[in-house]
Amino acid sequence: MTIAELNQQHGIAGQVSFSEGTGGLPFVTITNEFATAKISLYGAHVTSYQPKGEKDILWMSEQSAFEAGKPIRGGIPVCFPWFGPHATDTTKPQHGFARLTEWAVKSTATLANGANEIQLSLTSNDETQNMWPFAFSAVITVTVADKLSITLSVKNTGTETFTYTDALHTYFNVSDLSNIDIAGLQNATYLEAGSTEIKTQAEALLLINKEENRRYNNHTGDCIITDKGYNRKISVGKTGSKITVVWNPGEATTKNIGDIPDDGYKTFICVEAVNALDDVVTITPGNEYSTSAVFGLA
What we know:
It is a single chain. By secondary structure, the chain is mainly beta. Helices cover about 5% and strands about 40% of the residues. The chain contains 3 helices and 23 strands. It has a 9-stranded antiparallel sheet with strand order 6-7-8-9-23-19-18-13-16, with no helix packed on it. Strands 5, 11, 12, 14, 15, 17, 20 and 21 form an 8-stranded antiparallel sheet that branches. The termini are far apart.
């Protein structure tokens, strides 16, 4: 569908507009009394959520590729139908194919409270089934209000039960890692990436002063990111997920990541709603499952 056709069928005057963005990718911009948000149809990827009068809550890498076949770095990548590397075939894309596929616009709307909602859809096809042999329909719903909410809903449209893992892999924009702390994880158990040792966080506040890749188990509560440099707090909530991942690559690992500046790690923290490890999703034919993340200024 062309940009003109998207605007004709789904645009809302003064609120929802479609345009060609970086790299020629189609984007939608949503602007209302609460905030402005930008979403790439490639990957159903939210790249910006900026409340009125505030700095963007999402972080984007200035070195991100906006190119078909490559993931966008920053914002909210949608990881599906697997989180991390594929379990048995490392030639398949990291974090699945959803973030590397253009999604179709299903609907746009203005809600009663003045917020806006857009739904993007992805349906199984020959290409997806070559990588993951199941019939499904997936819908991303993004609601732009005083908070931003994003929901991934997956329906089994086939005749076989399937299992998947996923993540809403949100990059939060911060002034500097040395200025932040994260509340809401005290007494939660977690694994560090690559380790099988279960640890418990005793501290009330998580400080980020080195590379972190923690997978908190059975964690369903909210987190609060306090940023003294930007003088703000970001609330991070979720539903449909029992795993919370906190990730920052640190200085050494960042140097091996081509689409993040060497010092870029200092200005973001990922707090992610995840279904993985002992929280994988199994869907029988005809049924559906949803995972949501919601965040905003606290």
